[in-house]
Amino acid sequence: MADQAQPTLPAGPGNTPGPGETSRNTRRRFAPKGQPLITGINRIGLWSLYIKEVRRFLKVQTQTIWAPAVTTLLFLVIFSVAMGRGGREVLGVNFATFVAPGLIMMGMMQNAFANSSFSLLAGKIQGTIIDLLMPPLSEAELMIGIIAAAITRAVMVGGALALAMALWPGVDMQAAHPWAIVWFGLMGSTFLSLIGLLTSLWGEKFDHNAAVTNFVVTPLALLSGTFYVISNLSPLFQTISRANPFFYMISGFRFGFLGQSDIGNTNEAVIGAAVGVGMLNLVLGVLTYRILKSGWKLKS
User: Fold this and answer.
1) 23 domain-assigned
2) pLDDT (tens digit, 9 = 90+) per residue, 226-262?
3) What's the helix, strand, coil split of the chain in %, to 5?
4) What is the topology of this protein in the membrane according to its UniProt annotation (predicted)?
5) Residue 285's domain spans which residues?
């Protein structure tokens, strides 16, 4: 039986790999320890993180979407009653129409901050931060997932507010420049999402989060021209207002509805502010990524 096939001997001391054994061993070889097996973007992991964050705030949507919308709507009621009597007009429209876009933008930004500032901070306090750090997600993917969920919540709150205000008597919600509504709405939500993520990296307890909300976010939002035009202020306070990034986001968003704002009344006048807020978000995004990658207060 000289022509009968001989069995292939396993590789080992004194034996050489049989035919085909070398290629099989090559195919079964795992990557070296520490070398990632996922290359490029981990789309499944990123999508899973985004859905997890969205489901987290949708589980308590009465608190995270509808309650902020109702609270912001109360500002419209109070200020319309207090300052809108006698047919008062601002920028050529009645007071309720003037203040409505600013309230929508303010509600969107505050809720974007609230959402992104909770994720990592809650994990650090509850000891579940490992659930976000262990999955095969890069720092950029972790940041994108959290910020995208915060923007989603902001858009939902803004949509609920816009619908309520469109049905409110005396409020005209026509869109004069849709591009400005979309751009400044997204840039404002992104800006506050990044600020919230930085807060959750820095904070060690919920008091730290509340401090940033009460002493930074809320004052800057209320003093940004939401309820007034800055031309009514003294030159000093006009300069201070123009140093507030919230001013450009709220005024640009208002320009999208009214076609008029403190920035200007033409597309050309507002484009500079649009580019400026975009660059501000880019710089803040790079800073947030570098801090997140360093593991500051997360891995150290």
Assistant:
1) no
2) 888 888 888 898 899 899 999 999 999 999 999 988 8
3) 70, 0, 30
4) Multi-pass membrane protein
5) 42-294
Residue range 152-166: mean pLDDT, rounded:
93
Domain-located, residue 159: yes
pLDDT in tens, 29-62: 666 776 666 677 889 999 999 999 999 999 999 9
Report the alpha-carbon distance of residue 235 to residue 241 in Å, rounded: 10
In the chain, the number of structural domains is 1
Alpha helices in 127-138 (DSSP H): 130-133
The position carrying tokens 């085909």 is: 20
What mean pLDDT is predicted for residues 112-137?
89
Using a 10 angstrom Cβ sphere, with 0-12 exposed, 13-18 middle and 19 or more buried, the burial of residue 55 is exposed
